[in-house]
Amino acid sequence: MSSQTGPDENVSDENLPAAQEEAHGAQVAKSDPFADPGLPPHEHRIQDIDERAAKRSERTVAFLFTLSMLATVGFIASFVAFPIDKIVYVWPLGRVSALNLALGLTLGVALFCIGAGAVHWARTLMSDEEMVDERHPIAAPPEVREKVISDFKQGAKESALGRRKLIRNTMFGAVALVPLSGVVLLRDLGPLPKDKLRHTAWAKGKLLVNENTNEPLRPEDIAVGSLTFAKPEGLEEDDHDFQKEIAKAALMIVRLEPNDIKDKRELDWSHEGIVAFSKICTHVGCPVSLYEQQTHHVLCPCHQSTFDLADGARVLFGPAGHPLPQLNISVNKDGYLEAQGDFAEPVGPAFWERG
After folding, report:
1. What does the DSSP 8-state code read for residue 188?
2. What's the CA gap between 128 and 175, in Å, rounded?
3. 301 contacts 294 by C-beta, under 8 angstroms
4. Which residue of 25, 226, 233, 290 is most buried, as measured by CB atoms within 10 A?
5. Fold observed for domain 197-354
6. Where in the numbering of this chain does the Rieske domain appear (predicted)?
7. Residue 149 to residues 136, 167, 187, 282, 291: CA-CA distances in angstroms?
8. Which pLDDT does position 31 carry in this prediction?
9. φ and ψ at 308, to 5 degrees?
10. Assessment of whether the complete model's pTM goes beyond 0.70
């Protein structure tokens, strides 16, 4: 008759400690499935046992929060101190905008210091003992809610937020100042254009200057059926704002037979059949330059909007929504063509339905 052995009888003497440790781990796991039997005992940090070390950590956190506040102030000051068009050389980036560089550095330091201060605070001063809490239903019973409130109060107490006023005050200051960066960014939405889009470099008495020869135009310089491009007197290509101004003031001059002009206002604003219209298409701002001499039509090369220069430059075809603005011109006492004022309506693409 064979004998039966128990589960532990096969364990040799040399394997006894390992078996006992395994059995102990199984017993702990059975009583607490979340426990780690191999977890070493909790070791206190130096800040937990030495108040001087805790004070050093507190000063470090406060320094980071204070540095964040100074960086936020620097961010705001950069908007005032640096012009938008100022360029600086920074190795290895090369030529960069001084304003963008200052804004990026100051905002980056402000956000980094808040994060670094919070992390250092949590790692050195807040409680680092790990706790396991079983999951509970969403609708917590009253005793669980009481426990949560109790745990919150305990956490607030352990964070020493009330006792360590230096950290608390500097943290509140850093967090309160950072949103001001977003408020200052609203400056890029302004200033409001007001009526700037309704005005160009043309004004009463401004001579019409040929773009190619840079000479003032006389009526005899423009032949019937010809197309000439002009700019306002005093607007030179080496001017700082030349591109911005010519984008609104570029002029297209055509000489028609006065009898061919159908629109009364166009005839009144012309001189001996010489009419001046904006060169900027009212669709998306492309330069209108393709002129059909026989039909007096001018074509935009971008999207084929077609305008009738003999009928107030009204739209004949294409996506443009408005006629080309006309410039009122005449001849001065010296025999040169000059403007009688600015365009009567905004040039280029319609904005706010020209309201």
Report:
1. G
2. 24
3. no
4. 233
5. Rieske Iron-sulfur Protein (2.102.10)
6. 243-338
7. 15, 23, 43, 65, 80
8. 55
9. -100, 105
10. no
Amino acid at 47: Q
How many CB atoms are closer than 10 A to CB 196? 10
Helix (H/G/I), strand (E/B), else coil: 97: strand
**pLDDT (0 to 100) of residue 272:** 92
Q: Name the CA dihedral angle for 227, 229, 232, 233, rounded to a multiple of 10 degrees.
A: -90
* Cis amide bond preceding 92, omega within 30: yes
The per-residue pLDDT for range 318-351, each reduced to its tens digit, is 998 889 999 999 999 999 999 999 998 888 886 6
From residue 39, how far is each of 36, 87, 122, 263, 277 by CA, in Å? 5, 58, 22, 94, 85
Residue in the block written with tokens 């919150």: 152
| Amino acid type, 193 | P
Q: Work out the end-to-end distance of the chain between its first and last CA atoms, rounded to an integer number of angstroms.
A: 110
Quick one: angle between helices 98-124 and 51-81, nearest 10? 160
Give the domain ranges of the chain.
Answer: 43-130+141-187, 197-354
Q: What stretches of the chain adopt beta strand conformation (E)?
A: 87-90, 94-97, 208-210, 227-232, 251-255, 274-278, 290-292, 297-299, 306-308, 314-317, 326-327, 329-331, 337-339
Burial 33-49 (b: 16+ CB within 10 A, else e): eeeeeeeeeeeeeebbe
pLDDT tens digits, residue range 168-211? 889 889 999 888 888 777 777 766 667 777 888 999 999 999 98
